[in-house]
Amino acid sequence: MPEQSPAIIRFDKVNKWYGNDFHVLRDIDLSVAKGERIVICGPSGSGKSTLIRCINRLEEHQQGVIEVDGVELRDDIKAIDQVRKNVGMVFQQFNLFPHLTVLENLTLSPMWVGKLPKKEAEERAMQQLKRVRIAEQAGKYPLQLSGGQQQRVAIARALCLTPKIMLFDEPTSALDPEMIKEVLDVMIELANMGITMLCVTHEMGFAKAVADRVIFMDQGQIVEQNTPEAFFNNPQNERSKDFLSKILGH
Amino acid sequence: MGTQFQPIAPRPSPVRQSGPLVWARRNLFADWRSSLFTLIIGAVLVWALPRLWQWVIAGAVFQPDPNACQAARGVGACWGVIAEKYRVILFGRYPYDEQWRPLVATLLMVATVVVSCMRVFWTRWLALIWVASLAGFFVLMGGGVPGLSKVRTELWGGLPLTLMLAVLSLFLAFPLAVLVALGRRARLPAIRTISVLYVELVRGVPLISVLFMASFMFPLFVPQGVTVDVLVRVVAGLTLFIAAYMAETVRGGLQAVPKGQFEAADSLGLGYWQAQRLIVLPQALSMVVPSIMNTFISLFKDTSLVTIVSLYELTGALALALNSDVQWRPFKLEAYFFITLIYFSGCFAMSRYSLWVEKQLAASKAR
Description:
Chain A: It comes from Hydrogenophaga borbori. Chain A: GO terms for molecular function: ABC-type amino acid transporter activity; ATP binding; ATP hydrolysis activity. Chain A: It holds the Pfam family ABC_tran. Chain A: Keywords: ATP-binding, Cell membrane, Membrane, Nucleotide-binding, Transport. The complex is a heterodimer. Helix content of chain A is about 40%, strand content about 25%. Chain A is of the alpha/beta class. In chain A, the strands form 2 sheets. A 6-stranded mixed beta sheet of chain A has the order 6-7-8-3-9-10, with helices on both faces. A 4-stranded antiparallel beta sheet of chain A has the order 2-1-4-5, with helices on one face. The radius of gyration of chain A is 18 Å and the shape is globular. Chain A starts with 6 loop residues before the first strand and ends with a helix. Chain B has helices at about 20-25, 30-60, 65-70, 80-90, 100-115, 125-140, 160-185, 190-205, 205-220, 230-255, 260-265, 270-285, 290-300, 315-325, 330-365, and one strand at about 310-315. The longest helix of chain B has about 35 residues, at about 330-365. The interface between A and B is medium-sized, with 26 and 21 residues.
């Protein structure tokens, strides 16, 4: 379990509000070990997406401390840039850049942020495209691809940062059922590579297969966290039991 | 059970019928309403076309002969006025013997614009071409170098002035508009306020008053002895005016870029300007090509308003050519047709070009 290796992500009493009265994260304490694979689940509006979006500062927290790879996230642009270089993110809606080809989507950040020469950036991009098994589509535009293909490109794009941490924000929720598997397969492969992963998902099969820890959130709080076996077979909290019965019951 | 999936075999599409009769039935006489309109429009054409022919061609006078024109009044057009006055209309008060210079300058400017519209020339060299071409334009027009006598800017006029004002103010207004549009969405309240104030102030006044201010009030604010050329002031006025409108167009495009695009750019570590330049603006601008072209076209025609500060561009030069000439004054209408044709070809070319650009952009986004 977590504590044997040093924490790469640390949340200390983190609070966040949307507007004045929507308290979306409440006293979050969380420590993620290097190489740990975490699945975060919970009902909608429970703050799970907000939680992982705080890790690369797509959302700002108002109270508490978030530390990523030894860098504290504050209003300091340098610190934020530093963290973002190490954190790849995959979105529910893919968010590929539609005016750029697949290859250009992948080389953009390595070239402009990482200052890599074009040739090297393209080599790296092709390597990642091969990893997600989509190298033959490099010259196409994102909208010419299927949803599953787009999401795999998005994963490859995040991997081109050579991140230490990968965040997945409901990566399969916008996909047709027959495309979910191709994306999950890629994610399972990644998980086996030893990269630190935080994944917001309701794919319980995925959680069982790869997660070191499952975190259940409700109303902005971490309600329960445990190994997948323990969490699925023997949930401790009423809310977790209720949630599991709903998503596993059908 | 046991039934197997049987795909429906593909069939060829129905044979296309063609020929003039089929076309006419489909497009002109599809039902009684379209038949009715076809007949009405046909009747109007039968009535109007012969009269138009009579006025434009058959009864028209083509020689620059005021007496013949006078005789043909009411019967035919007097195209002779153009033959007589075209040099004043095209070049205004520019010294008569030197008028090859504005001619070459105009051709240079047109050629540069045409070249910039073509994809093969979209390289780094294009900026250099523009610098050279603008320098060439101003040297030709202004002179003051060995071999070319000096011509004061008050004497510039006609088509080259129209083109120069339009091209230069568009060039300057576009980046300004993008900055103001970004400014209105900036995080810093000061920048946001300045951008909003600028847009609202400029949009709230007519172009004529902006030109007036640029021309007559601006000199009051600069120290004594410093003079800013009237052309510079007018270009500045046009630029500021058009940039305010364009900024709002660009802002519309910016708003249409989904939030996820910004987040993806952020998550990839792109800085603000990188994200704007590489991700946001290309998408935002490609969405507003038609309205930006709209602004371009209206600016091209709005240059005619600089007459009020005594610059005789195309429209002003026309008035200059005819107002003081009793013999030819009655045939203003024909002269106006002439400059209408010039304005129209400019605007039509722009609107066709905008369509072409849209097609190019659509091709790169094709599903």
